[in-house]
Each structure stands twice: as structure tokens, then as C-alpha cells.
Amino acid sequence: MSDQFQGYQINKTDDGQSCELKQLSEADLMEGDVTYRVEYSTLNYKDGLALTGSSPVVRKFPLTPGIDSCGTVLSSDSGKFAVGDRVILNGFGVGEVHSGGFAQKARVNSDWLVKLPEGLEPRQAMAVGTAGYTAMLCVMALENHGIKQGDGDILVTGASGGVGSVAVTLLSKLGYRVVATTGRMAEKDFLKKLGAAEIKDRAEFTDKARPLNKELWAGAIDVAGGNTLANVISQIKYGGAVAACGLAESMSLPTTVAPFILRGIALYGIDSVMASIEKRQQAWNRIVKDLDMKLLDELSFDLDFTDLPQAGEDILAGKIRGRAVIKIPE
Q: 3-state DSSP call for residue 56?
């Protein structure tokens, strides 16, 4: 592979930022001990914010966006990886302060990389992406809390999105009865196909929450925050738990201590960005074992590399369902 390669680059401008598909060189790569050819990437909500400049996600310029990538090692100064190894990268500030996966090459710190597990293809890894890996971390948190399949329903909010759709699929295959919420009730059949037993309109969760409501859910995975999370917490059964991993609705949490001290519930914060390599590898190994790959195909679609700027706007507008997979041109 030559020194020259294609990639998106975000630059700071007087009125914000610009994002262009450019011819780059190895001089544009950032510091790191592993360089790899990016074969696939994916589009996350945070990537949409970076591509459009809608939020100050990018904090170092110039920078290549793309928080997820999967590819083959071209050169390595690390004892952990050799030329030819297949690797996955999620998080660690990539796409924010370190150039990421929307380019044909990337150079990163080997401490951020996970080996692609056996039985998983690069395209499948990016169909999972940060969203699916985060969903697996949420499922693991509920399992570690001790929630069993017979304990009751598991609620998944924002189920039409990346995290939610994979969470529904995982939980269903593991034998849990899943209730999904969505703001797009037209996606009802899609969510049932993924394994949801029941679909609720997210509007049922957006009003101000009472401290305690009827006990409905053994556990929940929430991507929304705000009133939605407060309502979910108020409805968790005694001894249950919520895994919270997003703030699509709000960063606030207008609730009380009542559910925690009167029902003994737990709220787990799920961080996918700085999670340990050991936890990441465990999550990816579980994905190979517990995610229905046929259903993964159902909830993923291919997005052309040159369409990324428009797709960034579309994901912020809620126009993208499931997981967008980007094959990086060779």
C-alpha cells in the first residue's frame, strides 16, 4: 500500500469546521505503534456530530473522524500485534482527539486494539461496532447483577437505534422476554423480528416521573437519560437493575433516592470508551457466541464511503435504522 491514501479530514475554520474527503499521506497519521489498513468502519451518533460539527466532539485539528474501525496490521512496533493480524478499535478518544476509521489507513496505540475474535468477519465486527459492543456491556452488567430469564421482562429504550437494536437481539437470544420502546412505531415489525415480545411508544416514558411507579421490569437498558430514565427507574422491580449507556434525551436525571433505598435497585453506568481491554475482549467473545449473525445482517446495511457527510446528517435526524457498515475502498 502506498504512502498516499484517501480519508476524511476535519479542519477548524473561522465559522466552525470543515470536513472533506482528501488525499492524505503517512505524515497525516498520528502517533502510535501499530499502523493498519482500515477495511471496514461504521457510523455512530457521535460520528454524525463530528461530521456535521453539530457538537464540539472533535477537539484536535486536523483529524480524521470515525470512532470504529476494523482492519489488517501493516506495521507494528508492539509485541502484542504482528503484520497480518486482524484488529478492532472502538473508543479511547479516537475520532475525537486521535484520527480514526474514516480513512484507508490508521495509526494508533496498540493498547487500544482488540484482536478480531475467531468466527467474526470484519464486516460483521463493524455491523456490531461501538453500539453493539456497548449493548453487550449492558447485557453483561445485568447478568452480573444476577438477573435471570425467569425474573421478569427486560425493558430496552431507544430500541430502533444502534445500541437498542443489538440489545434486543442479544437479550432475546439469551432467553429473556424483551419489551422495546421506540419513537418510531412504524418499526414495530422490525423490532419483533429482532426478538422483542412487546413494543411501547417512547412517549409513555417522557412525562415527569413519580418517585415510585408500579414494578414492571426485572431490568432495563437505557440509552435516553432524562425523564425516560427516571420513569424506567421508578418501574424497576425490587432488587432489579438498569444499565444506562446514553443521553439521547437528556444528560439530566430527575429522580429521587426512593427506588434505590425502598426497592434496593441498582443503576449501572456503562462506559464503552475507556473500558479495559480485558472487558472489551470478553464482550467481543460473547458477541461471537451470543449474537444471532443472521439477525445482525437484518439490522445492518451498507453505506458508501463517499456518502458519509450526508449520512452524518441523517443519523442526527433519526433517519437511520439499525447499523450502517462502511467498506473502505482499497
A: coil
